[in-house]
Design a protein that fits this description.
47% helix
């Protein structure tokens, strides 16, 4: 018989840490709050470097599991950093007088964009009143009358001279709005057009010849009359411009003086002045005339035709007048238009219209000169957003485009706003899986996001982190107004934190999971009327949280308990063992035992995996089966060929299986079948094995142990039950209190092992056996029995072949 196997003491089954003086407090109420990031030194260093390097492509991808505080840390860190950075410029769109389809973008120091918008609104309001008032003034009328009088005097003198010459040739001069005409005189009377037509042809020719001769002789006089008419028109126009400039010039000059440091504004003001002078009639025309004329005009398809003053409005796209430091924008809905901005449209008289005042900013405009924090998953889920973001980061310019027109889906004429240069740091928050997918499939990604801030899901359980963790609890309690925790409550939360990462020497950094327990434990303490949250309240919160999600766990346990799913926990059976697996439902995972059976007989098929034969086995599980064949061949077939067929099956398993954590259990079942030594069914097994017979670590060790323990407890603990685990998983043990208590009382056992030999001895109570100097296993050992069985198989197989 084998010696008593090594088993773990109850102290080794849960979180191990010497709390010392760093937690020398009574309640978290006494502690100083901590709002920083905990246990993310690698990510913090990457962030600190990434935000300081201002080179194209050095944007940051914050990688890691959800709940580790990536977004909140990024927002808090860059907001603090942004406070000391300069406030970026305002951005405006102005009317382009040369090409209205292409609105002009200008930038002004923070706050001046708002001032320019207000100044231009006041300017328009003033000139709408001042220009009509100036043209209704006495000075204007006097000046205009003087020009007209001078014109009429000169014209009268020329017409007199023209008349005199015409009369000498028997013609009379007639002036109309359409020109100057010569009427023939016959018998002292000027002929009418009808009388002229009644003349005979000979007289008509004579009149025509005399008229042509007269026109040649008076050509200079006619030209002089037309010249003074043109001169008078120009003088009136110049006088009107002078009056208009007198009305608006002082206001234009005031604006020019205020914005003299901004060349694009000065150029714009010059264009405004020229446009006013070109459209004086629009300003002079009174409201009733304007309203009447609009009724007669064909409905316009552009808002720019509603009045010249509309062109003088300022579209303040980005207003940083109230911004302190650099902007920090966090968004969770980065659609294409939300990201790059949009051009809006209106329906007017059956037409779709737009203008430069309907250009709206996007997140990139708002964050320009600062930081933009987005969720990678949100960006990728919104059509075209990812490509638009990359295009902006590549070109360093924001171009507002109609997406439908860009895709060729709609043939509506639209605006082409001038692109705005951008200086921005984009922080993309996402999972590690998404990071590697982008890195592999998108060649632009690694060029544009060169800094990876990798957040870990766990941190070392050292003095510094433990203290920060306790202060984080204090901070949460103060911020949310929940009950504070006493020392026992804090320690219980830390044990739970270690359980979440399945490591006695680590704490979780998924603080979202911790916050849930803090809130729920406080609620239970308040229900009980307690002043502080203690360990019992935390334990209650954990139990209740599990209870809300463990319906299927309990239903499966009932099937096991009643024998519908056949699992033996008391007898010893040849070729049968209880393996352990974990079922993960997303919000809850639990362990369950599975009966594994093995039958061995003479043959050449080797190890037959029944699940694999019917395509219910995953690749990892199939690999584990092939490893078993390698172990058996190396261990027993050095002097003879194997004539073995071993059939392995997970009984009552209908949904498929994967993973190699049951490979050691499968090997034990085969060895039991070959050696004909029964296995204690009260001992369940988990752990993978390599070809050398070494036990390898697995995941979900706590759930597996607790799942088997719960079944044994329901059937009554006998003191002979327990679980074999890989020795490497000892540090992962953070078991429930009831399991720890059962081990302490000797009712349940946990055996850490390193090799198959150790495990088979625990399961059968028989020594595994080691080869002696002659290369033989001691008689009566497990390996001796297996070797002899295989040798007999080989012998019978050879004899059968010979026959």
């Amino acid at each position: 018989m084998s010696t008593k196997p090594y088993e773990l003491k109850y102290e080794q089954l849960t979180s191990q840490y010497n709390w010392g003086k760093q937690l020398d407090f009574k309640t978290t109420e006494e502690m100083v709050s901590y709002d920083g990031i905990i246990g993310q030194e690698r990510a913090v260093r990457a962030m600190e470097f990434g935000v300081k390097i201002n080179v194209r492509g050095y944007n940051i991808y914050l990688s890691g599991p959800t709940g580790t505080g990536k977004t909140s840390y990024a927002e808090k860190y860059v907001k603090k950093l942004a406070q000391s950075e300069p406030v970026p410029d305002d951005w405006c769109y102005l009317y382009n007088f040369n090409n209205p389809t292409y609105p002009i973008a200008i930038n002004l120091p923070a706050g001046m964009g708002k001032e320019l918008k207000k100044d231009m609104e006041e300017f328009v309001s003033i000139i709408k009143n001042e220009i009509p008032k100036a043209f209704n003034s006495e000075d204007y009328e006097k000046g205009k009358a003087s020009i007209i009088k001078d014109f009429k005097d000169k014209r009268a003198e020329l017409l007199k001279k023209l008349n005199e010459q015409a009369e000498k040739k028997e013609f009379k001069v007639k002036t109309t709005s359409t020109g100057i005409y010569f009427l023939p005189i016959i018998n002292g009377k000027a002929l009418t057009e009808e009388e002229y037509e009644n003349l005979d042809e000979k007289d008509k020719i004579a009149v025509r010849e005399k008229s042509e001769k007269l026109q040649l002789e008076t050509l200079e006089i006619i030209r002089a009359i037309k010249a003074i008419e043109k001169e008078a028109e120009q003088k009136i126009s110049l006088w009107e411009h002078k009056i208009a400039l007198f009305a608006v010039g002082i206001h234009i000059n005031d604006l020019r003086e205020k914005y003299k440091a901004h060349q694009k504004v000065l150029e714009y003001l010059n264009q405004v002045k020229e446009d006013i002078l070109e459209n004086l009639d629009e300003f002079i025309e009174d409201a009733s005339d304007r309203e009447q004329s609009q009724l007669l005009i064909i409905p316009s398809t552009s808002k720019e035709d509603t009045g010249p003053q509309e062109k003088y409005k300022v579209n303040l796209l980005v207003d940083n007048s109230n911004t302190q430091g650099a902007p920090v924008v966090v968004d969770f809905n980065p659609t294409y238009y939300n990201l790059v901005g949009r051009i809006e449209y209106e329906s007017e008289r059956g037409s779709v219209i737009t203008d430069y005042t309907m250009i709206k900013p996007g997140l990139l405009h708002q964050a320009n000169g600062g930081y933009l924090i987005l969720q990678a998953d949100d960006v990728l889920r919104n059509i075209h957003s990812w490509e638009a973001l990359k295009r902006v980061l590549r070109t360093k310019k924001i171009t507002i485009e109609n997406m439908q027109e860009h895709l060729g889906l709609v043939a509506v004429s639209t605006l082409r706003p001038e692109p705005i240069p951008i200086d921005i740091k984009v922080l993309l928050v996402g999972s590690s899986e998404l990071y590697h997918l982008l890195l592999h499939y998108d060649e632009d990604f690694k060029k544009l996001f060169k800094i990876k801030a990798d957040f870990d899901e766990e941190m070392d359980k050292n003095d510094a982190n433990v203290m920060k963790f306790a202060r984080f609890i204090s901070s949460f309690c103060k911020r949310e107004g929940v009950l504070h925790f006493d020392k026992s409550g804090v320690l219980k939360v830390m044990d739970y934190s270690s359980r979440l990462v399945e490591d006695q020497h680590k704490l979780t950094t998924r603080f979202n999971d911790i916050v849930e327990i803090l809130a729920e434990a406080s609620a239970w303490a308040r229900i009980e009327g307690s002043r502080y949250v203690n360990a019992n309240h935390v334990k209650k919160a954990i139990i209740e949280k599990e209870y809300r999600s463990n319906k299927y766990d309990k239903k499966l346990l009932a099937l096991l308990e009643e024998g519908t799913i056949m699992i033996d926990t008391t007898q010893s059976v040849i070729g049968q063992i209880n393996g352990l697996s974990v079922l993960d439902l997303g919000d809850y995972s639990f362990g369950k035992p599975s009966k594994i059976t093995a039958n061995t007989y003479i043959g050449k098929s080797g190890i037959v995996n029944i699940e694999r034969e019917i395509e219910m086995s995953g690749t990892s599980h199939s690999k584990g089966i092939l490893i078993l064949a390698g172990y058996i061949g190396q261990k027993y077939a050095q002097e003879m060929p194997l004539a073995l067929t071993a059939s392995l099956c997970f009984e009552q398993m209908y949904s498929g299986i994967d993973g190699d954590s049951a490979s050691s259990a499968e090997l034990y079942a085969i060895l039991s079948s070959l050696s004909e030594l029964p296995i204690n069914q009260g001992i369940a097994v988990t752990g993978s094995v390599n070809q050398k017979g070494e036990i390898q670590p697995i995941g979900g060790v706590n759930q597996k142990i607790e799942g088997f323990f719960e079944l044994c407890k329901r059937r009554k603990l006998t003191g002979r039950q327990g679980v074999i685990i890989p020795y490497q998983n000892v540090k992962n043990l953070v078991l429930k209190d009831e399991v720890v208590e059962a081990v302490k009382e000797g009712l349940f056992h946990i055996y850490p092992i390193k090799t198959i030999d150790e495990g088979i001895e625990i399961l059968t109570g028989v020594k595994a056996g080691t080869k002696n100097e002659a290369g033989r296993y001691p008689e009566g050992t497990v390996h001796y029995k297996v070797f002899e069985k295989l040798r007999s198989f080989a012998k019978y197989a050879k004899e059968y072949e010979n026959k």
